[in-house]
Specification:
five-stranded parallel sheet, 5 strands, binds 1,3,4-trihydroxy-5-OXO-cyclohexanecarboxylic acid, alpha/beta
Length: 148
């Protein structure tokens, strides 16, 4: 079973970007850990990151045809602005779990609204790099349940 990990804008800067909010762990380090967990869970993880909204839309849109069973996504700033990413998630109709490293409800008001979350089966936020791990585990459990 294949899971697509999608990371949106500025997440390539993790490690040095506002470390008081996002910590010091880099995106390659997060992906490396997730791959290990994916291996333990018996799923394959394919990871992609882009600063461009259309890339996210293209990847999500192609995910069903590429054989992905589900999506873990941190849309980053597009969470709060992108009808296109939300529509892509709805159109793909794969179980998707939204991730935010920070607690988006404990920051500026504009961050507490997610346009993309209604197209996801659930949202994890606020646990730093570990948030991705909970999301991956939750999605894998959900997919296993669906399959069983
Ligand atoms: C983020 C939260 C967003 O509000 C922000 O624009 C990001 C990262 C997070 O992981 O906490 O880029 O998605």
């Amino acid at each position: 079973m294949k899971i697509l990990l999608v990371n949106g804008p500025n997440l390539q800067l993790l490690g040095s970007r506002e470390p008081e909010i996002y910590g010091r762990v880099t995106l390659p380090e997060i992906v490396c850990r997730l791959r290990r967990i994916a291996g333990e869970l018996g799923v394959e993880l394919v990871d992609r990151q882009s600063n461009h909204e259309g890339d996210l839309v293209d990847w999500i849109g192609a995910a069903p045809a590429e054989g992905f069973a589900g999506i873990v996504i941190n849309p980053a700033a597009y969470t709060h602005t992108s009808v296109a990413v939300r529509d892509a998630l709805a159109a793909a109709a794969l179980p998707a779990v939204e991730v935010h490293m920070s607690n988006i409800h404990d920051r500026e008001d504009f961050r507490s609204r997610s346009l993309t979350a209604p197209a996801c089966v659930g949202v994890f936020c606020g646990f730093g790099a570990a948030t991705y791990e909970w999301a991956l585990r939750a999605l894998a459990a959900r997919l296993e349940h669906n399959a069983g």
